[in-house]
Task: structure prediction
Amino acid sequence: MDNILIAQIPVWQVGILKIDGTVQELLQPGLYGYWRVGYDISVEIVDTRSQTKVEDNLAEHLRQQHNDWVDEFCDGIEIADDEMGLLYEHAVLVEILPPATRSLHWKNGNPRRIEVLKSSELEADAELVSLLMSAMARKRSVKGADSVLITQIPAWHVGILKVDGIAQELLQPGLKGYWRVGHDVLVEIVDTRLQVLEISGQEILTRDKVNLRINLSANWRYQDVLMAYEQLSDPVSYLYRELQFALREIVGTRSLDELLENKQVIDDLVGEKIQQIALRFGLEVASLGVKDIILPGDMKTILSQVVEAEKSAQANVIRRREETAATRSLLNTAKVMENNPIALRLKELETLESIAERINQISVYGGLDQVLNGLVQIKGEQKCL
Result:
């Protein structure tokens, strides 16, 4: 039995008979036997369902030596240099073939169809994009699908189509597909809504050498997206740096007292400066403002003492003003009483009444008659009045 090679070729498989390393025959499914006497004989079995493509060296050999075998066992595919190919099996897309493709595929009972497209077209057909998205949704791979860039642009966004690093077109929301064959294609998605840019923890020396930590917030949007990306590689980073530079320039040329007296001056001057710069690059700063001005610890103590002294001085001025007003009122009252005995007597009775309201107990000395006589005298004086 060692001198006989027996090969069983199952259904949907092909046997490649090699004698001394040279392909001699392609075998249909069935049982085969060969004498090994004086020859190195082998049979390689290929599963045409899992390995659909013929190996390149074998394919070239078959084309050159055995065209009849090619017609019997294979489907030939030839794609020109300026074309792309879509390979369908059972009307299902299984592979995207690049330009200059020349290959053989084993016949395995699956009906094949080739659709040829021009590779000069940059945008992929909407139907092809839909097929690829459907395949991804079903987790079915399509060989060569990476040759198509598929991007989903959400609402309130736009896409910047870049070909070989150059911005080409502004894309509206929706599903888009582009061929990557022969070009480096990229779609950068940009949010066109109002956005917030935080400039945090900027340590800046004022003109009088006080180190401040400032936090600034800016609201901005794209005014012209294409203009921004044609001139800037990263518009957000550029805007961040320009806000930093403007903030340092405004704060560094003013004293601490100027900044603390009017914090709005920072917002106004930085906003005016950055708006002029941003508009030249298709950006718009809608508003900005300083959120915090943080002083060093020792400077906080000094300013607290200054504020305390100022408030104490203001309190003293108010106290002296009130005391002066009270004294002037007493002086006017005394002048009125000096020339009017009745007014003086009324003031005495008012004083006596206020004193009596505070007395809970009265001790009488000298007899009750003296107290009654005093009361009668007081009532008489009240009647006369």
